[in-house]
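Supplementary Methods. Inverse-folding protocol.

Structures were first reduced to a discrete structure-token string of length 206. This string, shown here, constituted the complete conditioning input.
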């Protein structure tokens, strides 16, 4: 066999090796694509997906007000769809905070349920609703400027939008906020917030 024939005989081997190399590169590239690449994670990707608490049983399984539908809503809309948060939604409107909560990103809202507002004497609640500055300060104390996941609730302190220090304690699925409010249904995912429903209205710390 001549030298020329030898070179021609080796050429297919180089082509085969090159083809294998390209196939490996392409497979790695596709694997990177399937893993998400630079895509941003979904709202629940970095957060525990399952809500918890005894009050979660009253949330509809499907349709308006369900966990699935609330995950597509801003926290203001999600709250409005929950019958247990009627007084909270009213207070937010009275304090002109609807836009604040609607436009905020990656926040946590500790929203008192209607039973929580019922604990406040009517005359005291009326005065609070009339005093817009004090009402706004009180409601902002219920909002933390980042998403709080359940694993961060044990013996922690969070700076609220009123610049107060909100304290949480507990473990498992039993947590308290500021030592008095119980989490009725927590870690509800919305587009721009984690929502925790609590059974007491919190008072801003001096």
């Amino acid at each position: 066999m001549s030298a020329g024939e030898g070179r021609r005989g080796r050429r297919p081997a180089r082509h085969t090796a090159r083809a294998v190399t390209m196939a490996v590169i392409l497979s790695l590239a596709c694997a990177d694509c399937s893993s998400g690449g630079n895509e941003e994670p979904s709202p629940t990707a970095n957060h525990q997906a399952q809500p918890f608490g005894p009050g979660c049983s009253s949330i509809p399984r499907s349709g308006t007000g369900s966990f699935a539908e609330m995950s597509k809503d801003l926290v203001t809309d999600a709250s409005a769809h929950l019958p247990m948060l009627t007084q909270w939604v009213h207070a937010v409107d009275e304090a002109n905070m609807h836009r604040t909560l609607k436009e905020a990103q990656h926040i946590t809202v500790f929203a008192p349920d209607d039973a929580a507002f019922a604990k406040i004497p009517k005359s005291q609640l009326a005065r609070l609703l009339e005093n817009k500055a004090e009402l706004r300060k009180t409601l902002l104390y219920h909002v933390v400027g980042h998403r709080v996941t359940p694993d961060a609730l044990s013996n922690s302190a969070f700076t609220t939008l009123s610049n107060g220090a909100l304290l949480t304690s507990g473990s498992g699925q039993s947590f308290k906020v500021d030592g008095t409010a119980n989490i009725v249904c927590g870690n509800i995912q919305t587009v721009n917030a984690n929502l925790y429903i609590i059974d007491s209205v919190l008072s801003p710390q001096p």
